[in-house]
User: Fold these one by one.
Assistant:
Number 1:
Amino acid sequence: MRRKFYLGLLLMLLVMALNAATAMANAPRVTLDGEHVDVEASLVDGRTLLPARAIVELVGGDVDWNPELRQVTITHGSTNILLTVDNQTAYVNGVAEILDVPPQVIEGRTKVPLRFIGVNLGMEIEFSGATVNLISTQDITIPVATIQPETQPAVNPLALSNYFDGRAFSTRQHELSDGTVLNVHITSVVRRNEDAIVRFDWQPGDDFYLRIRYASGYGTAAGLGSQTTNEQGFISWRWRVGGRTALGTYPITITGNGESIRLYLTVIES
């Protein structure tokens, strides 16, 4: 009986490996304006997926990876895209869109749908046989070196605190100037007319300044600005996101004590 179980398990693993190998073999060759791009594509349910950074960095955009929420935030100019691994709902400037195929982790790398990302980053997509050509609508420099595998920040599970005051948080790890790691907790996705919260632990009596840059300029809501760590070294900011705030992803900067911490807040529909 046990032998049949192990044989069945082995057969299942072999089928999975063969399927993965077939998808890799059938994946198209990728070019940008006719020039070959050295990137490992995958074919899933007839859709081409590429490593998130491979597409975005070609057009000078930024990619932020949230390991515990398994979310990818892409920022390029005025375009902000939020995707979640294995979830077919994506947000473009805060507006929900349904994907044909969700982002997936394949062989340790987060891959996203090529057509969806390319179109939203202003590129045209042209398929020709086994080749997919990205046609840029702006000046893009193709990196000479091979695109390196996407690295995901290490996370200390003991430092994660996913709920505070009834709200779900994500934790970002920031490397300080002395090489130590600071865990910063943030409600990284909020709705209009909802409070955004940022908090972390430090040493008592130190001042920090937080500001967020919305589409209309720097935020002025009560709760932003300067705060001082309390006797336990705890510090937090809490402010209300306005009902008319433009949907999208916005940068947050926290400065103080020789440190500069960068975060992102995504505002979605109410």
Number 2:
Amino acid sequence: MKHTWIGILALCAAALLAGCGSAPEYSAEYDSVVAITDASAASSGTETTTQTVTQTGTQASQTPTESGSETGTQPASGTTAVTSQTTKATTKPTTTTTTTAATTTTTAAATTTTAAPATLEPITPPMPADPLPGDAPPVLLAGSSVSVKPGAAFDLNSLIGYGDDHDPHPSLTYEGTVDTSTPGTYQITAIISDNAGNVTRSNITVNVTSNKPGTSSRPAESFDNFRAAHPGQMYGIDVSKWQGNIDFNRVRNAGAEFVLMRIGFGANEMDQYFRQNFDNAAAAGMYRGVYYFSTANNVDTARNQADWIADQLGGAPLDLPVAFDWENFSHFQDYGMSFDDLNAVYDAFAARLAERGYSTMLYSSMNPLRQVWQTGGRVIWLANYTSGQTSYEGGYYMWQASNTGRIDGISGDVDMNVVP
């Protein structure tokens, strides 16, 4: 089935305005998902910890990396038996706590060049979404099962991610005992409280083991099979420096019609392959878009990132909205934000880019879309890796359905996307 981009955008815009959306989906582990990539974006508030603990040895600091993974906390040695712990970034008003029980466990081809297509009609930048309703309990975002090395200090706050709709500094305690001198499996209950008296209790499995946590890996999927699994749609990829040198003529001839390229990340650092990707994709006749991997935790930083993107583009037209990619939910509490604050960060990013002549969309996996992001009025790029149809109930404009794609012109895995 053939579609023109204008027709597709019109259909997608109509679907979004109608509030509909169920179509194809990223489960991946955040669905387990994400890790801190820029420690400088974390909250600078002083953290105080009270715990009953016996230990020997010192604990090393985290070393975040640009790629989206972290080395973790690896103490030199020690024995820790913990019975209780309280972690809080700042002092909150004393409240009378009314507990609301809630558990979140979310757990070789020819190299001919195709003529460049006409520019797509732009998507109108959405207005800021309505705030999240009510005063919901805090949410455990990541870490229903965690691992600790034998003899290491046990610090639950460094192993899980959590947040609250309004309180930027929810407090964490837990019930149960973890003896890291004895390998085995321990069950504890995390207790997350906000300053409105809402409480979430979540069961956590703690594995004291020398083995590294297992990671699930999806099998490689050819682009031809991907297209066959999602008939009658527009097909594309998203790339960054991790894909290395790309032959976009071969990618285009293999059937990819659009590409989103990482323009930057962190403190306005440009992806080293962006310029050549941007130029070569246009020469190959592909529709182009860009995304920015953000760790912003305030609106000023978000505006600065938006201005930087517009400056680098220099007025060059895009065929797709600029994507805002914020993923660091596995340690969300370290950023000193509430969910409302994070949504304000996106709004500031989108508003500034609108002033500079570019529309935006929000990239996210399912659980943050359900628990953190305000989706009303926003253009959504859904990430959900599954072999079948997505279970995401909301509307979306684009769907990143695989992260293990294989396509002629790229060595190794690449993310594959569809526009319904």
Number 3:
Amino acid sequence: MSGPISASDYVEHFDPELPHHRVWLLVVLEMCFSSSCAMLLAFLKPGVLTGTNGDDQYLARVGQFGDTTDAAAQIRTLASYGVKARFSNQASFQTLEQQIAVGIPVPCDYLHRGPVSSPAGGGHWLIVVGINATHVIVHDPLGEADLVNGTTLGGSARFCRYSRANFGRRWLVEGDGSGWAVQAEA
């Protein structure tokens, strides 16, 4: 198992100081998939996204391939930048361990609402940048999550430590090997 990947290109997908983010609040709340894939791209291809909100550049390109919530559009967008990736709905903690061991962070979708005993919601994407025996280490574009209660605490969620037990209940809802993830190649 590996420690966290040093990923300096963390992006937050809602900046209330930017007028276009205030106007597009409903769209922004669906940007987590794009923001997480943009962080993957920024790690694998440093400098390809520029400025403090590089995920806006990525989002513009996603629009050429489909909706921000469509996995195929995200995979085609990554490919357009030269990143070979695939969507999986059969990922596990072993998948994360393997990817992190070769230095590749992993965008993951999990149910982020409701109590941990009964996760709910439409899902939320973050990127796993490290993993150990007890925790996953993530960058979460929405801010730090309260995995026990299913709320968002906000603030910065760079290198946030989420317990494997609580994250697993929300990510592997249908059992081991049922996690949604984007797996990229180096």
